[in-house]
Amino acid sequence: MKAASMRKSRVDPLYYLFLFPSLLIFTLAVTLPAVLGFIYSFTNSVGFGEFGFIGVRNFIAVFRDEGILGAYGFTLAFSLVTVIVVNVLAFLLALGLTARVRFRTALRTVFVIPMVISGIVIAFVFQYLFSNSLPLLGKGLGIEPLASSILANPDLAWLGIVFVTAWQSVPSAMLIYIAGLLTVPPEVYEASSIDGASPWHNLRHITLPLVAGYAVINTVLGFKNYLNAYDIIVGLTDGGPGVATRSVAMAIFRGFEGGDYAYQMANAVIFFLISVAIALIQLRFTRGKGGIAA
Question: How is 20-89 classified by DSSP, letter by letter?
Fold first, then answer.
């Protein structure tokens, strides 16, 4: 009996055949660079040649660098605003595309098109629209605020980035909300209508609680993606005007190009720890909500 149990518990060697190559690739592509980057953050390396260990001086310098702190402020604010905008728009679209309307299947197809287009391509298209087409339209209609590109305004350029990022991100979030709305049993709404509940009552007391788990998924995934914003910002403003829209990811990459390798590795380590902390806080506050348990 014991021998039979041991035979059953043995792992088929075929599993290891698939596991080890994947584990090796992940280690070489992710784990090893992360460990080396952490080590280099304590050095004065410029990315090549000789280097020496300088302790935590890079980390201290990061916290004193106003340019880096500004990039953190922009990235966090941009991520928070975009998460809210994307989730609100995606949920409203999901409600409309799950209602009994004509051509809803065709409309779903149209709305997911931005999801399959490269972010840098979308950014360059909108950069042209914001810088040329929209100002021409504003001048023709006599609308002064539209007569100049918002991307050239340090106080308004972030709005263009939020708009374009939301335009690309809404479809994926919308699909998740549609999946959530389709799991709500129709009988629940039928029983509610028998009791004379209004559509607003159904939305507030039935729909929102039952899709809360999907809102958690969209919030966590969205915040993670927006913290790493890079391609759309590069295509729209390249971090400008000045450094008004420079994200942390841009600051890190630009530092690598400028020879601040070890310094920006320290910045990357700090950014990683902040991202992990935000993820843990999100999981802590959303644990068990909407049927999701951590």
Answer: HHHHHHHIIIIIHHHHHHHHHTTB---SSS---B-TTHHHHHHHH-HHHHHHHHHHHHHHHHHHHHHHHH
Closest CA to 157 of 241, 80, 70: 241
Place of tokens 């590109």: 149
- Triad 121, 126, 129: Cα angle to 5°: 135
Is the CB of residue 229 less than 8 Å from the CB of residue 160? no
Q: Would you state the structure tokens that stand for residue 95, as one six-digit string?
A: 């409600």
Per the structure block, which two tokens stand in for 115?
A: 């999801």
Q: Look at residue 186 and give its three-state secondary structure.
A: helix
Render pLDDT for 112-135 as a digit per residue (tens, 0 to 9): 788 778 888 899 999 999 988 888
**What residues contact 149, with CB distance under 8 A and at least 6 apart?**
130, 131, 134, 135
Look up the pTM and report it. Answer: 0.83
Model confidence pLDDT, tens digit, residues 35-89 = 998 999 999 988 788 889 998 999 999 999 999 999 999 999 999 999 999 999 9
Mean pLDDT of the chain: 85
Give the pair of three-digit tokens for residue 251.
């600051």
Across the strands, what pairs with 53? Answer: 43
